[in-house]
Amino acid sequence: MQINLSSDGYEIVDSRQVFLFEASKDLKLDIRADNGFSFSVVLVFLKDSSGKQEIRQEVRENTLHLSCMNFMDKGTGLITPKKIAEIEDRALFLMFWSSVHGDLNGKVRSVRYTLFFERQPEESE
Predict the structure, then answer these.
(1) What's the domain range around 25?
(2) pLDDT confidence of 124, banded at 50, 70, 90?
(3) Count of domains in the chain?
C-alpha cells in the first residue's frame, strides 16, 4: 500500500514528532534532495530577558539556522509555512510547533514538523 499526503496543493514529504535530548537542545534536519542537493536546517531554542517570541534567521554555508526565541511551555511555532529552499523549480516549506513538557524535576522539548513540497506542474498533452 502506498499513501500520498497533501494539503492545499502541496505534497507532504515528511512529518514527524521528535523529543529533544533536553529542552534547550537544538534540532537538526539534514535534507538531501533526489538530485543530490543537500542542506541542513537547525532549530535553535533560546531564551532572553525580553520574553518576546520571535524567530531569527541566519544562513551559514548550506545551513539555515532558525533561532527560536522564548519558545516556552504552552507551545509556540510557525502559523504559516516558511519557504526554506527551491529545488528543481519547486519550493520546499517547513512548518513546526514546539512544546516543553515536564515539571520541577525536569523538562523535555517536543517538536512537531512537516515539510511541504510544491506540487509539480501538470504536463500538458
Answers:
(1) 5-118
(2) low
(3) 1
